[in-house]
Large-conductance mechanosensitive channel
Amino acid sequence: MGMISEFKEFALRGNVVDLAVGVVIGGAFGKIVSSLVNDLITPVISLFTGSADFKSLSVTLRTAVLDAEGKETVPALLLNYGSFIQSVIDFTLIALVIFFAVKAINRLRRQEQAAPPAPAPAEPSAEAKLLAEIRDLLSKR
């Protein structure tokens, strides 16, 4: 078996195609969730916290060293804890949105599974039963 045909068999296997579709849809869904968090949820949170961006929060561990002309020779050393806080908030909000989306999808699946089965066909009327008996008797002759 040639390498090309082996690769073709691998690439067209159901699981690989399903995975590829999942990755593409997941990427698109990630953009939607990020937009929801950044454009809708974070501004609402900023109403309560006063700022939507914590990235500028830091503690100076060492101040910058300047030369006689005022140029920075040694940059300041900062502990940027605000970036960490912002990442934790972003992760939490994205995880919540995904949780609620998965919860809604699971609820829809349960409703589909719990749907009542199709009604059984109605029992034939007395006339239909009688006609069937007559047909059966005639076919035996």
